[in-house]
Amino acid sequence: MERKGLELGVGVFVLFGLVCLAYLSLNLGDVQLFGGWGYTVTARFASVSGLKEKAGVTMAGVNIGEVDKIRLEQGEAVVTLRIQEGVRLEEDVIASVKTMGIIGDKYISITPGGSDRYIEPGGRIMDTVPPLDIEELLGKFVFGTLKE
C-alpha cells in the first residue's frame, strides 16, 4: 500500500515537471497555440533594411506591439504589425522604421494622427517612412557627394 503511494507521488512529480518543461518551452520559443494576441495591420515600405520579425512597434516611446511578418510584394516590403488590444490607430498615423542608437536594432515607430477615424483590424497604414540608410549617407560623406 505504501509503495503505491510512493509511485503515485513520483508519477505526479514527473507529470508536474513535464508540464513545467512544456510551459517554459512554449514561452521561451514565443509559440502561441491559440492564435495571436491583439490585432494586425499592414504597412508598405520602399525598404525595411535591417528590420526583423519580432521587432518592436512603439508609439510615443511605449511598446504597443511587434512586427509579425515581413514579405515582398510588387517590389515593396509589406510589414504586418501586431498591435495590442486597446490601442487604436488613427487612419492618418505615420509608420517609420527607426534605429535604436546609431547602429542598434530597427523598430517601427508610429506617429499618432489627428483623425477621428481608426484603422480596422486587418487594415493598412497608408503613410510610411523608410529607414535612413547610414551606409549610403557615410558613402556620400566619404566621397564628397553629400550635397547632391
SSE arrangement:
Layout: H1 2-28, E1 39-45, E2 56-59, E3 62-73, E4 76-83, E5 94-99, E6 106-111, E7 124-125, E8 127-129, H2 134-142
Summed over residues and divided by their number, the pLDDT gives a mean of 88
**What's the helix-strand series?**
HEEEEEEEEH
The gross shape turns out to be elongated
Strand order of the largest sheet: 7-1-4-3-2-6-5-8
What kind of sheet is the major sheet?
8 strands, mixed
Which range best describes the helical content: under 10%, 10-25%, 25-40%, 40-55%, 55-70% or over 70%?
A: 10-25%
Please identify the structural class as seen in this structure.
alpha/beta
Strand content: 25-35%
**Number of beta-strand segments:** 8
| Separation of the first and last Cα atoms | 89 Å
Radius of gyration: 23 Å
Tally of contiguous helical segments: 2
Any low-confidence stretches, pLDDT <50, length ≥5? Answer: none
Keywords: Membrane, Transmembrane, Transmembrane helix
Domain Mce/MlaD: 38-113
Pfam family, one: MlaD
GO molecular function: phospholipid binding; phospholipid transporter activity
Structural features:
single chain; 148 residues; alpha/beta; eight-stranded mixed beta sheet; 2 helices
